[in-house]
Amino acid sequence: MKTFISHFRLFAAAACTIAAHPAFAQDANAGRDLAAACFTCHGTNGNSVQGVPPSLAGRNSAELLQAMKEFQSGKRPATVMHQQARGYTDPQLQLIAAYFASVKPGPAQLPAKP
User: Fold this and answer.
1) CA pseudo-torsion sign 84, 85, 90, 94
2) Rounded to whole angstroms, how far apart are CA atoms 56 and 47?
3) 47 is a domain residue
4) Which end of the chain has the least Cβ crowding within 10 Å, N or C?
C-alpha cells in the first residue's frame, strides 16, 4: 500500500507540474486570443493600415517581446502601450510575440473610403 501511495503522490505532483506549465496549459489559439486586443490599433492579425502604428505581423518574436517588456517597465515611451503591456504576464507576452511572429505580413493596406 505504501508503494501505491508513493506512486500516486509522484503522479499527482507530476500532473500538477505539467498542468501549471504555460506551454501545456495553453490551447493552440491562446496567442491569437491574447493578441486580439492589439488588432484595434495594429490591424487584423497585426497588419496595420499604412503602417501606423507599426505592423506586428511577421516581426521577430524576441524583438516584439523586448519591446513589450520595455513598454511594461516604462523604459520605452508610449501613449497607450505602456498601459496595455502592464496588463499581461510574461508568459502571456511570450504567447503574443510568438503569435505575431508566426503571422505572414500582408500587403500595405489603405484606409477605407468614407
Assistant:
1) positive
2) 6
3) yes
4) C
In the chain, DSSP assigns E strands to: none
- % of the chain residues with pLDDT over 90: 61
Does residue 90 belong to any structural domain of this protein? Answer: yes
pTM of the model: 0.70
The cell for 18 is 505539467
List phi, psi (to 5°) of 61: -65, -35
Q: Are 106 and 47 in contact (CB under 8 A)?
A: yes
What confidence score (pLDDT) does residue 8 get?
Answer: 37
The answer to whether residue 64 is domain-embedded is yes
Residue ranges making up the domain that contains 90? 28-102
Q: What is the pLDDT of residues 39-69, one digit of tens each?
A: 999 998 999 888 889 999 999 999 999 999 9
Q: What are phi and psi of 49, to 5 degrees?
A: -80, 120
Q: Which backbone phi and psi does 75 adopt, to 5 degrees?
A: -65, -35
Total domains, the chain: 1
More confident residue, 6 or 64: 64
